[in-house]
């Protein structure tokens, strides 16, 4: 069943065409990535889905309630003056859940996210990886059926990023959230996705749709030849696009 779809969506920001007739869909429980160069318009798709940018042309359909999105923005967006536990409950509190009840929902998940001993810390006292895990937990605990993740591992060093991706793959395999991930990292897209949409440079068009039929788990083991071949294919698509425009 299709959980979410964009049909012929085009957007101008000011005088700048940013999205050009974008068509994409995500099935329920599917992990789909949007891969493209920086500045292509990937975050703009999320801003449309979350209502931050109004729809101009085309249609967006969502099978579930319009409140079904949980959004993790590009930066971890933790509030520096709130302790970790109070950051984690924030999304629920915004939904109208009392802080005490929100804590009750967050508590059982803390150990799984490696945050059990850090609830009274402030964000600045945590490592980058821990802050990202906190931001993810805050997103996931909202119980929304669709996760929109904008470069959730982008700010991390290579080792932490690999650890976080492995950890996230495990969580996703258990929960099967409908997930739309924005990334400019070819390897990350191949490691995590069922399907990948490749965007052109701005104005963004979908220039390829690639299925990744590699069995899971994929991370925590040497990359397969199949993964390498798909990465090469994606890089060629992206490089060809760059060459065409420069
Ligand atoms: P990505 O997430 O792929 O890096 P974004 O969706 O953040 O890209 O931005 C897409 C493009 O839209 C960028 O090149 C940016 O310069 C442009 N852009 C964003 N906001 C505006 C605006 N208000 N007016 C004009 N151009 C904008």
Protein described:
There is one protein chain. The chain is of the alpha/beta class and 246 residues long. The chain folds into 2 domains: 2-68 and 145-245, P-loop containing nucleotide triphosphate hydrolases (Rossmann fold), CATH 3.40.50; 78-143, no CATH class. 35% of the residues lie in helices and 25% in strands. A 6-stranded mixed β-sheet has the order 5-6-7-3-8-9, sandwiched between helices. Helix 7 (186-192) packs across helix 8 (225-245). The longest helix has 21 residues, at 225-245. The protein is globular and about 50 Å long. The N and C termini lie far apart (40 Å). The model has no long low-confidence stretch (mean pLDDT 91). The protein binds adenosine-5'-diphosphate. Adenosine-5'-diphosphate binds at residues 13-14, 16, 18, 36, 38-44, 202.
SSE order and pairing:
Blueprint: E1 2-13, E2 16-27, E3 31-35, H1 42-49, E4 57-62, E5 69-72, H2 84-88, H3 90-94, H4 99-106, H5 128-140, E6 146-150, H6 158-175, E7 178-183, H7 186-192, E8 195-199, E9 206-211, H8 225-245
Parallel strand pairs: 3-7, 3-8, 5-6, 6-7
Antiparallel strand pairs: 1-2, 1-4, 8-9
Helix pairs in contact: 7-8
The protein binds adenosine-5'-diphosphate (ADP).
Concise overview:
With 246 residues, the chain is an alpha/beta fold. It has helices spanning 42-49, 84-88, 90-94, 99-106, 128-140, 158-175, 186-192, 225-245, and strands at 2-13, 16-27, 31-35, 57-62, 69-72, 146-150, 178-183, 195-199, 206-211. The longest helix has 21 residues, at 225-245.
């Amino acid at each position: 069943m299709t959980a979410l779809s964009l049909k012929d969506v085009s957007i101008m920001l000011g005088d700048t065409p940013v999205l050009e007739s974008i068509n994409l869909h995500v099935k329920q429980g599917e992990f789909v990535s949007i891969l493209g160069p920086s500045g292509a318009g990937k975050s703009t798709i999320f801003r449309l889905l979350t209502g931050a940018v109004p729809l101009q042309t085309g249609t967006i359909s969502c099978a579930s309630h319009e409140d079904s999105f949980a959004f993790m923005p590009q930066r971890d967006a933790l509030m520096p003056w709130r302790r970790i536990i109070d950051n984690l409950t924030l999304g629920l509190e915004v939904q109208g859940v009392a802080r005490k009840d929100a804590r009750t929902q967050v508590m059982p998940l803390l150990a799984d996210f490696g945050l059990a001993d850090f609830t009274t810390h402030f964000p600045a006292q945590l490592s980058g990886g821990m802050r990202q895990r906190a931001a993810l937990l805050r997103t996931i605990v909202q119980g929304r059926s669709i996760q929109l993740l904008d470069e959730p591992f982008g700010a991390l060093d290579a080792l932490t990023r690999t650890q976080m991706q492995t950890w996230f793959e495990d969580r996703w395999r258990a929960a099967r959230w409908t997930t739309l991930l924005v990334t400019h990292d070819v390897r990350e897209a191949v490691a995590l996705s069922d399907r990948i949409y490749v965007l052109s440079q701005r104005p963004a068009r979908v220039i390829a749709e690639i299925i990744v039929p590699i069995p899971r788990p994929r991370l925590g083991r040497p990359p397969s030849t199949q993964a390498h071949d798909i990465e090469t294919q994606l890089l060629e698509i992206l490089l060809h696009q760059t060459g065409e425009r420069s």
